[in-house]
Amino acid sequence: MALVTTTDMFKKAFENKYAVGAFNINNMEIVQAVTRGAKALNSVCILQVSKSALNYAGPKYLKGMVDAAVAETGIDVALHLDHGPDFETVKLAIESGFTSVMFDGSHFDYEENVAKTIEVVKYAHDKGVVVEAELGKLAGVEDDVKVDAANATYTDPEQAVDFIQRTGVDSLAIAIGTSHGAYKFKGEPKLDFNRLETITNLLEKEGFKNYPIVLHGASSVDENCVAMCNKYGGSINGAKGIPNEMLRKAASMAVCKINMDTDIRLAMTAAIRKSMAEKPDAFDPRGYLSDARVLIQSLVEGKIKDVLGSENSMN
Question: Would you call 82 a catalytic residue per the annotation?
Answer without folding.
Answer: yes
